[in-house]
Amino acid sequence: MKKTKMSANSGRAGTLSFVHAADLHLDSPFTGISGIDPELGERLAKATFQAYEAIIELCMEEEVDFLLIAGDVYNSADKSLYAQVRFIEGLRKLETAGIQVFICHGNHDPLDGWSASLTWPENVHIMRGDRAEVVKFKKEGETAAFIVGMSYPARHIVKNLVKNFPKKECNWPFTIGLLHCSVGSNPEHAPYAPCTLQDLRELNYDYWALGHIHTPSIVCKEDPVVIYPGNPQGRHPGENGARGCFVVDVSSGGDISTRFIETDSVRWHIREISIEGLETEGELIESLQSQLDAIRENSGGRSVICSFALKGRGPLHHILRQEGFLEDLLRLLREGETWGRQFIWVDRIEDDTLFPVERELLLKREDFVGDLVKIVEGLKTDEKALDEFREVLSPLFDSRNGRKHIARIDDEEMNYLLQRAENILLNALLTEEDNEN
Prior knowledge:
By secondary structure, the chain is α/β, with parallel strands linked by helices. Helices cover 32% and strands 24% of the residues. Mean pLDDT is 88; it is low at 1-10.
């Protein structure tokens, strides 16, 4: 088994530190955006590169020993020349700072894809695709870590690549597995190089630096630490929330600490807004503007693409259904936005509202719907009926398993749950015409 030696003089003495990133998807287009402004499109085209630059800057600021990139550097096997040159430029900055880089390729950037003839910096090691490769990292003249990794030789890898990895030997130092793969099942991602957590544990590594799953997640906190850093820049509404990478510090005794660092320059937000309690169009506009102000204030200076989902019952339901109303509302919220350092683009407004329910009329109905509302009303107003209902529920709270997971419900929460249950049932049973009759 060949072991490639790489050394560095940077980093903090007595510790091992590295940045774990994955799924850069450089040059990836933003998708799912409606009515996009040309200037906005130009800003978004730069976002994946800005996230990559943030990772490079983070490595230098933290003075880490090395950077791990766990696959999908590019968005496709036929990556653009521009993306390749920009990627290498970032690696050269790390070379100047004495920071090593270890890369494995994934399903979006397999080794058999096209690559330009460019000169790679000497601080970079790309894992081979025919077998797992062990790379020895030396710090201050001593072997500080082994990085064991494997790239995808081709795009569609459906076999368990972890089976190709050697088990950690007793004389090995801190050992890291570097791989683009699917641990367990995840319906949002195709199962490339599928494996189980038990497969990873059996190799006795200390840390698994994984890629492929775009949502940041710590799969396992210890023995071994298994982390998906997610992609450093969300690219569509499904990739909302903070995106970034992990900084990992390893003490001289082998203790591991991790920090998630945000690197996205544009963030996706999806907000649900209830129309309950809103009577007029003006109140709705004020509510949406207030949401935008809060998003801007709490976005850490980064730009935002947001979508609003209007929910609940109320008189505004009829207004929202008027032809052209949502389009006009969207135009108002977008108007005046400038494409400076920080912008907020309202991508869409979805109407998921329901017609208001005349509850007094429903109480007078002599049918199943009327009986339902009367039962809920009785439970909310008749103390004896409520006590009997609590008695029916008591086995849930008194059983051994029940006590572990649920707490007693006070009167306020009980009323809330009863009203919520009624709303769910009425939504399923009523049509707008039913309510008007």
